[in-house]
């Protein structure tokens, strides 16, 4: 049984359907990428899985439990945590307060989780007392991921973690995600940067207009002519490793 | 340099407040002590409403209703059931908490403007009910409410009642201070900033908001209980819509979410009309003008909270910080 199973998920904003029945699986321990152009429905898919949106029909199963009717704050407690797109952090709080808030579901802030987060992101330890809104963009994204890790998730949903960051920071974030995964956290990642995502993930799904257009191992998708033209740029050098 | 000046001003203000608060009952006339006691009542009410409006970001336009429920609970239990003052406090807390749950549960799920309308209506219902029911004494209200006692000592003098009020204020102040720094306090701040992100962090917004609403109600109930034994007589005219607005003014004038702000503003709201008694004809008019001038001079409030300051500054420097962010990331690339 897979850790996450999504079956024929349909989500609409009012009368406009954004997802027309997508299905996807994420096995325990994997990194899976969700690719697609702007407006394809990637964010909608993650928001529906994490309970921030209610699907019109379809099912979401997580760790053997059906979660598509559960509210978001409950789903977090089951071990599925979402790092939303865009506004990631509570900018009026300090770094420390943000991290404590991440552990909201637990009665006490778990020291082990805090230590792990500071090992992954040493820069956050230096800036513990700083108000999060005054961090740089890269540090804010680190904080968003760190806060999510404070919930000690089994599955982490990441929505465009590299958006708007300098190339060096993109690399740093991607490396850290790989490290988080090695420590045992399963990852479903949405990325605009398709070549980076295909290098990071074992498998990928490509969304087009609210449907799954392609799926398969990253190495296969990286060789796929349609993917290369649409997401990697024509003639882009192939750097995917099997 | 400005910040340093500010710190001195703030330090001096804190010392002044403590000196006045402790010196007043010793050297003040009974009239001045009564004014001081009324300031204490408004501090309690301001701190309570601050939990609802300042911390949780909910607009309550009928807050005086909880003040009334506390006052009438204590008044009726002491008058009719001859219960001791201290025993009426937990009962008042239960009644106000219960009414907070009853009003809050259906409305907190809705948009916040609905809450404003419902609380406005609730405030009026409570006042009208108190005016028309017989067990609340109708328009005349209750009178002859007994004085509270501590181990056989009757708290009757203005001084004694002032110190009782001060004790109440200190308890409420400590409660507010700790709430802001608690797990619940962080949840309120998170919801105010971004409700979806808060939910993604495991916070249940409806539950957190209800907690704020109920805690605020209990604070007002305690203020009401004290108010009843201080005046020994209460009637519906103390619990009007204008009263709710006045309490709201205390926290807006003080600076949303700020505890020292509530204390300063409560003093201004009570003392200013007293000072203006000399100009009897134009007193309330001058009071209004005075408040408008204060808000124009200090739109952030008399003593803005840390969060409030950051919020204002964030707007002003958002562009500058975006540039700084880029620079910091650029610096990171050379690390
Ligand atoms: N809040 C919203 N209200 C209405 N339509 C929306 C909303 N958010 C997204 N959409 C629409 O849903 C579709 C999918 O959007 P989204 O999931 O954000 O795509 P992606 O994350 O892949 O860029 C788009 O057509 C978008 O216009
Ligand atoms: Mg998106």
Walk me through the topology.
The complex is a heterodimer of chains A (242) and B (335).
Chain A: E1 4-13, E2 16-26, E3 31-36, H1 42-49, E4 57-62, E5 65-66, H2 72-78, E6 80-83, H3 95-102, H4 111-120, H5 122-126, H6 137-149, E7 155-159, H7 167-182, E8 186-190, H8 194-200, E9 203-208, E10 211-217, H9 218-223, H10 225-232
Parallel strand pairs in A: 3-8, 3-9, 6-7, 7-8
Antiparallel strand pairs in A: 1-2, 1-4, 4-5, 9-10
Helix pairs in contact in A: 3-6
Chain B: H1 2-27, H2 30-55, H3 64-79, H4 85-107, H5 112-132, E1 149-150, E2 153-154, H6 158-180, H7 183-193, H8 195-200, H9 205-231, H10 241-254, H11 259-275, H12 283-297, H13 306-333
Antiparallel strand pairs in B: 1-2
Helix pairs in contact in B: 2-6, 2-9, 2-10, 2-11, 3-4, 3-5, 3-9, 4-9, 6-9, 7-9, 10-11
Residues 13, 16, 18, 36, 38-44 of chain A line the site of adenosine-5'-diphosphate (ADP).
Quick summary:
The complex is a heterodimer of chains A (242) and B (335). Helices cover 36% and strands 26% of the residues of chain A.
Structure description:
The complex is a heterodimer of chains A (242) and B (335). Chain A has ten helices and ten strands. Chain A has helices at 42-49, 72-78, 95-102, 111-120, 122-126, 137-149, 167-182, 194-200, 218-223, 225-232; strands spanning 4-13, 16-26, 31-36, 57-62, 65-66, 80-83, 155-159, 186-190, 203-208, 211-217. The relative contact order of chain A is 0.18. Chain A has a six-stranded mixed sheet, sandwiched between helices. Residues 235-242 of chain A have low confidence and may be disordered. By secondary structure, chain A is of the alpha/beta class. The two termini of chain A are 24 Å apart. Chain A is globular. With 335 residues, chain B is mainly alpha-helical. Chain B has two domains: 2-302, ABC transporter involved in vitamin B12 uptake, BtuC (Orthogonal Bundle); 305-335. Helices cover 76% and strands 1% of the residues of chain B. Chain B contains 13 helices and two strands, in the order αααααββαααααααα. Chain B has helices spanning 2-27, 30-55, 64-79, 85-107, 112-132, 158-180, 183-193, 195-200, 205-231, 241-254, 259-275, 283-297, 306-333, and strands at residues 149-150, 153-154. Chain B has a two-stranded antiparallel ribbon. In chain B, strand 1 (149-150) and strand 2 form a beta hairpin. In chain B, helix 2 crosses helix 10 (241-254). Chain B is globular, with a radius of gyration of 22 Å. The relative contact order of chain B is 0.15. The chains are: A alpha/beta (242), B mainly alpha (335). Chain A binds chain B through residues 50-52, 71-73, 76-77, 81-84, 87-93, 97, 100-102, 104-105, 131, 133-140, 147, 151, 165-169, and chain B through 183, 186-187, 189-190, 193-194, 196-204, 307, 310-311, 314, 321, 324-330, 332-333. Residues 13, 16, 18, 36, 38-44 of chain A line the site of adenosine-5'-diphosphate. The site of adenosine-5'-diphosphate has 11 residues of chain A, from strand 2 and helix 1.
């Amino acid at each position: 049984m897979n850790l996450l199973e999504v079956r024929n998920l349909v989500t609409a904003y009012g009368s406009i359907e954004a997802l027309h029945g997508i299905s996807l699986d994420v096995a325990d321990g994997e990194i899976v990428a969700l690719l697609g152009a702007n407006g394809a429905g990637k964010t909608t898919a993650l928001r529906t899985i994490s309970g921030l949106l209610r699907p019109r029909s379809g099912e979401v199963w997580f760790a053997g439990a059906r979660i598509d009717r559960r509210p978001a704050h409950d789903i977090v407690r089951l071990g599925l945590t979402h790092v939303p797109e865009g506004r990631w952090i509570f900018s009026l709080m300090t770094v420390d307060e943000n991290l404590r808030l991440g552990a909201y579901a637990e009665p006490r802030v778990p020291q082990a989780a805090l230590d792990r987060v500071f090992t992954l992101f040493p820069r956050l330890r230096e800036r513990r007392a700083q108000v999060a809104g005054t961090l740089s963009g890269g540090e804010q994204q680190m904080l968003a991921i760190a806060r999510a890790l404070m919930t000690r998730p089994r599955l982490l949903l990441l929505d465009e973690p590299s958006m708007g960051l300098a190339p060096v920071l993109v690399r740093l974030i991607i490396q850290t995600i790989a490290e988080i995964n090695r420590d045992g956290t399963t990852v479903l990642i949405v990325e605009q940067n398709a070549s980076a995502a295909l290098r990071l993930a074992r498998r990928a799904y490509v969304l087009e207009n609210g449907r799954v257009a392609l799926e398969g191992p990253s190495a296969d998708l990286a060789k796929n002519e349609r993917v290369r033209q649409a997401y990697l740029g024509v003639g882009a050098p192939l750097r995917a490793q099997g | 340099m400005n910040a340093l000046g500010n710190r001195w001003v703030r330090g001096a203000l804190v010392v002044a407040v403590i000196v006045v608060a402790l010196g007043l009952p010793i050297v003040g006339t009974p009239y001045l002590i009564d004014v001081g006691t009324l300031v204490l009542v408004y501090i309690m009410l301001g701190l309570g409403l601050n939990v609802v409006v300042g911390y949780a970001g909910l607009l309550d336009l009928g807050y005086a209703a909880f003040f009334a429920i506390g006052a009438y609970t204590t008044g009726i239990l002491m008058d009719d059931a001859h219960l001791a003052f201290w025993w009426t406090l937990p009962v008042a807390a239960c009644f106000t908490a219960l009414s907070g749950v009853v009003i809050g549960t259906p409305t907190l799920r809705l948009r916040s403007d609905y809450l404003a309308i419902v609380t406005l209506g609730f405030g009026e219902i409570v006042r009208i009910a108190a005016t028309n029911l017989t067990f609340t004494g109708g328009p005349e209200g209750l009178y002859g409410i007994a004085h509270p006692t501590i181990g056989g000592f009757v708290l009757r003098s203005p001084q004694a009642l002032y110190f009782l009020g001060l004790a109440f204020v200190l308890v409420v102040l400590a409660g507010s201070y700790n709430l802001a720094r608690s797990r619940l306090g962080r949840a309120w701040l998170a919801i105010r900033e971004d409700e979806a992100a808060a939910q993604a962090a495991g916070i249940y917004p409806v539950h957190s908001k209800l907690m704020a609403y109920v805690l605020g109600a209990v604070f007002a109930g305690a203020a009401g209980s004290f108010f009843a034994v201080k005046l020994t007589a209460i009637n519906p005219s103390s619990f009007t819509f204008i009263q709710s607005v006045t309490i709201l003014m205390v926290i807006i004038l003080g600076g949303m979410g700020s505890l020292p702000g509530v204390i300063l503003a409560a003093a201004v709201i009570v003392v200013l009309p007293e000072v203006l008694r000399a100009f009897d004809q134009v007193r309330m008019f001058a009071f209004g003008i005075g408040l408008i001038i204060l808000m124009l001079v200090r739109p952030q409030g008399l003593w803005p909270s840390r969060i409030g300051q950051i919020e204002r500054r964030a707007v002003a420097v958002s562009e500058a910080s975006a540039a700084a962010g880029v620079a910091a990331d650029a610096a990171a690339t050379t690390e």
